[in-house]
Automatic annotation (TrEMBL):
Localization annotation: Gas vesicle
Gene source species: Corallococcus coralloides (Myxococcus coralloides)
Domain of life: Bacteria
Pfam families, sorted: GvpL_GvpF
An example Gene Ontology biological process: gas vesicle organization
UniProt KW keywords: Gas vesicle
Name the UniProt record assigns to this protein: GvpL/GvpF family gas vesicle protein
One of the record's GO cellular component terms: gas vesicle
Similarity comment text for this entry: Belongs to the gas vesicle GvpF/GvpL family.
NADP keyword on record: no
Name of the gene encoding the protein in the UniProt record: gvpF
Length: 252
């Protein structure tokens, strides 16, 4: 006879909100509260474990509180465990469906865990200050000043090309300086006119301090830009696993 645990019994009839996937034998979790302050627990299957908490309905509303709670759970777990993070809003109707997901996606999830083993994501966004950058460039290259007979439109075109080349060299130098301390790099499209770089690096947890020090050293030389350096995060930018599960089969 199989005896259900108290957690399993209390979760019957409730949907399961999914935060991410870890190794089944990766050790215990810290005590964490998830969406609606429900306790986060592990559902284990085939060497994998899903981080879940009970939710009352089939969907999670993307309120600020819920988004922050999802983020806090995944951040707390990734400090000590290798985690394949799942995007906000993944809800499965039962614990058996969670187990089915782990069975169906076992191969890609295991591969992703292997690729992310001991690694976290660090993010860096770079914004330019157009006027400051233009002044810096004209100081370095006086020949870029507008000539007495040069049309304003022609000068703007020439200056814009020079600015593009100048910023590209700065950013290439920044990325080259960080590359030796990272396992992989991912660049997303910049957001807005002022953003010049929107990048993430996959960094071994043991090298995070060295990576942070290198970032601060490099950006100190680039005072015509503003930087937003974040992390460590779950490695969302380096996960490409689809968690599609067909409806669980039922007896006729």
């Amino acid at each position: 006879m199989t005896t259900k645990t108290q957690a399993e019994s209390s979760s019957e009839g409730r949907a399961h909100y999914l935060y991410g996937i870890v190794h089944e034998d990766g050790g215990g979790l810290p005590e964490l509260a998830g969406l609606g302050d429900a306790p986060v627990r592990l559902v284990r299957e085939g060497g994998l474990a899903a981080l879940v908490s009970d939710v009352p309905g089939p969907r999670a509303v993307p309120t600020r509180a819920n988004l922050l709670m999802h983020q806090r759970v995944t951040e707390a777990v990734v400090r000590e465990h290798t985690l394949v993070p799942v995007a906000f809003g993944t809800v499965l109707p039962s614990e058996e469906r969670v187990r089915e997901l782990l069975r169906v996606a076992r191969a890609p999830l295991s591969r992703a865990l292997s690729e992310l083993e001991g690694r976290v994501e660090m993010g860096l966004k770079v914004y330019c200050h157009g006027d400051a950058l233009t002044r810096r460039l004209l100081e370095a290259r006086p020949e870029l000043a507008r000539g007495p007979s040069e049309l304003e439109e022609d000068h703007e075109t020439r200056l814009e090309a020079a600015l593009h080349d100048y910023t590209r060299k700065d950013l290439d130098g920044l990325k080259a300086g960080l590359r030796p301390l990272a396992e992989a790099t991912h660049e997303a499209p910049p957001l807005g006119e002022r953003m010049m770089l929107n990048a993430a690096w996959l960094v071994d947890r043991t090298r995070v301090a060295a990576f942070e020090a290198r970032v601060h050293s490099l950006v100190a030389r680039l005072d015509a830009y503003t930087f937003r350096f974040t992390g460590p995060w779950p490695a969302y930018s380096f996960v490409d696993v689809r968690l599609d599960v067909e409806p669980a089969s039922t007896a006729p």
